[in-house]
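Handout, section B. The chain below has 485 residues.
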Amino acid sequence: MNSLSNAHWFSIARRAGRDVLLFIGAFIAAYYLRFHDFWLIENYVFSIGAGALALTISCYIFGLYSVESRGAERFIAHALMMIAAFIIAAIIATLIGYINFSTRPGRGLMALSTGLSLPMLLLHHLVLFHKHRYAPQRVAFIAESPAEMVEYQRIRDLKPNGVDIVGRIDINGSPPQGDLLGRVKHLSKLIPRHRIDRVVFSDSRIDDETARPHLRRLRYSGTSCTPLITLCEEFFQYVPLHLVTNEWLLHSESSNRELYFRKLKRFFDIVTSIVLLILLSPFLLMGICLVKFFSPEGSVFFKQERVGRFGKTFQILKLRSMRTDAEKDGPQWSAGAKDSRVFPGGALLRRYRIDEIPQLLNILRGEMSFVGPRPEQPAFVESLCKVLPFYEERHMIHPGLTGWAQVCYPYGASTEDARCKLEYDLYYMKHAGVIFDLLILLDTIRVVLVGGLKMGSQRPRYSPALDLLTPAPEDDSEEGKEILV
């Protein structure tokens, strides 16, 4: 599955898998210690399995599997969230047991399994929390040209968690410097000497007749050898726009995903939108009442033209959250729920995303999907396409109600912010799949529940500062915000 083709997602899967094994293993050990046998243990399989699933989902929503992105947060906060996730798992396991009373784990068994599993889970997460500090991946950078030296220095200054830039390797031989490890032709000796795990190079070296034979030999010798943009994908989960090339776009589709994009994704969108429209209808009704109470003179719904797949426009639907005179001073960027033009009830609608519920109709009509790049206004698209390369790539798939850029990057209203979100969108388009979409939906739950604490706002930014001549167009008053900002 493409969504797990990146080492970062394999790492998350391994961490979640170890949590499952610890949770289930502790219960099996507790059962044996209490009853000195495994008799009837199969009766508890469903309850404990549900608890293990709830544990991993809760840990992911709390961001406990992406510890390299958590910045300077102390482990005690991480441990408290781990305990909260464990409590949720225990409650789910107990409630599932009540469906069939004979399968309900007893209090003594639950207490003993808790005493065994919780310390082991905390120890596991303590190791995860500090792993990137005491066991980082040691990376050497092939850099000789001025452009390569700029990239090399940029990533050294960034100091990404989980990566130790041990030095650089040149091609033709440069004057000795402190960070120069040697020449590319001596890679076979340099790798064991400096304990190098990976060699990184710029795309231009792929066609370099001097470097290419050594890189090919390195690849077949078992040492990881990847372009710089791949390193950014794995450790930042976005693709720096200045590193994207037409070749990268052409080769980013490593397998045919027509079944997913045209069948599975659409089936999921239809079923889920119908179910959510039914479940969220009370909240939608409450939102309509708030709009009519606080701003009775205007329409309940807000419509605006947006650009969809392949550039086709459609009318996006939302509950109105601003006063009807919001544009009396002309169009301007929205400041989200704190915008002075938002009426009191509208702030509540925005905070808990109730104003977004009508977009389920856009999904049901096939104009949008649950996960994808956020749709923009035609004026925005026209302007941004002029200053941001590959911006039109966002329109190769259906726009989404939520997306990787929305859960990873904080709210912004500038061309630079549009560029950063495009980097996340391009990453999503390469790795889109069932698993990745489900993880984005879990991230969405976290953002909605905790008010927007995003992993992306803590991730280091590799992209260089922008120097763009054309500013982004001013935003329509009602739609300046993103769904998850």
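Note. The chain is about 50% helix and 10% strand. Compare this with the example in section A.
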